[in-house]
Design brief:
130 residues, alpha+beta, Zincin-like, three-stranded mixed beta sheet, 3 strands, elongated
Length: 130
């Protein structure tokens, strides 16, 4: 008798958590949600001083990257997060923080070494979070 009750309950739990996971993953593809993560990062770690950016979600397999930042125009930056890597809010936030440092150090970084000393110094602000 217990098995007859337990199996449907476990099945319902699997379905419930599967739906919850799928909704959460889809949310991490939404540019508005990604922009909100960027704004939170900007406010909390940069005092709101970073320039605004456009956020996108695309497969970056060809770039072998979890995220990329590029300058689309003189005053327009774009951050792209790969949904294959940002599978949770925490992962998306880690990638967002990394890309935020590219925005913060864009004008002072060596184009041949975008992860050089200015970038490394910027990333230190996130160490207390780990």
């Amino acid at each position: 008798m217990r098995v007859r009750i337990l199996v449907p309950l476990l099945s319902m739990a699997v379905i419930f958590f599967g739906i919850r996971y799928a909704v959460g993953r889809e949310r991490l593809r939404d540019p508005d949600h990604l922009h909100a993560l960027y704004q939170e990062t900007n406010q909390e770690f940069f005092g709101g001083q970073l320039r605004d950016v456009e956020l996108k979600s695309h497969d970056l397999s060809d770039y072998d990257a979890e995220g990329i930042t590029y300058q689309a125009a003189e005053n327009k930056f774009v951050i792209v997060l790969d949904p294959n890597w940002s599978t949770s809010e925490a992962e998306a936030l880690d990638i967002m923080r990394h890309e935020s440092c590219h925005v913060a150090t864009w004008d002072v970084s060596n184009p041949d070494d975008p992860h050089g000393p200015p970038f490394q110094e910027c990333m230190k602000r996130f160490e207390r979070e780990k």
